[in-house]
Each structure stands twice: as structure tokens, then as C-alpha cells.
Amino acid sequence: MVNWRTLEAKVDKTIGDAFDEEVRHYPYKKDGTVDPSRPITSLRGVLHTPSPEGTINIGAGVVTNMAASEGALVVQRADMGAVIFRPKDVIRGNELPGTPLWEIKTVNDRYSSIIVLTLNQK
């Protein structure tokens, strides 16, 4: 029998390999100041912004509603290294026109092979 977590991880990796782009993670403290204890890190992830209907598909069949100023970043756990994401940290889309910035709103680590960050555009 196929282990569903193994199958899910393969699907998530296939999506990541096809659609990921470089982003940069800037760690911040809760008070809005830079957190020098965590390094600035470049990594790859799939950035999602909402469709005109206000929905996004973040993989694994998960569809959610988002406001126009929101987005999501899906990162493979295997590719993260020692990165620690926290609310108030900032993500820069290095490969997007204008290299937009988003603030991390929530960190969802409930999935077996991915981390999903909900983002607010800055």
C-alpha cells in the first residue's frame, strides 16, 4: 500500500520544482525591529496571489479565499534548512517585477512536507 504522506510529498515537490521562485526572508522581532539572531536567507518557494475571484490553490487540493493584498508562500520543508518563519517577518519576491514585499501574517506547519505562509502585501 502507498503511504499517502510519501505520495503527498512527491506531488508537492513536483509543484515546487515547476513553479518555485527565489524569495528572500528578512527576520523581524515582534516590535518591528530587525532580528539579528536570525540570518537573512534566500530560498525558493511558490508564491501565490489571488485570482480575480479572490481564490488561490496552494496545492494538495487546498483552495482558500484571500483579499487582493494577501498572498501565500509555499516552501518545501526539505529545502528550508534552519530557517524559522515567524509572524511579522518579511518576504521579498526577488523574481517578480518591482520585487514586492510581504509581511508574514501566519505560519501553517500542519502539512507533512510543506510550510504555508499567509502574507500581507506591504
Topology:
Blueprint lengths: L3 H16 L1 E6 L14 E8 L6 E3 L5 E3 L4 E7 H4 L9 E4 L7 E8 L5 E8 L1
Antiparallel strand pairs: 1-2, 1-6, 2-5, 3-4, 5-8, 6-7, 7-8
Protein architecture, described:
The protein has 2 helices and 8 strands; from the N terminus they run αβββββαβββ. The mean pLDDT is 83. The protein is of the alpha+beta class and 122 residues long.
Number of helices: 2
Strand content: 35-45%
What value does the Rg take, in angstroms?
Answer: 14 Å
Helical content class? 10-25%
- Characterize the biggest β-sheet: 6 strands, antiparallel, barrel
The strands making up the biggest β-sheet line up spatially as 1-2-5-8-7-6
Q: Helix and strand string, N-terminal first?
A: HEEEEEHEEE
Shape: globular
Structural class, please?
A: alpha+beta
Distance between the termini: 46 Å
Could you give the count of β-strands? 8
Tell me, rounded to a whole number, the average pLDDT: 83
Q: Report the uncertain regions.
A: none
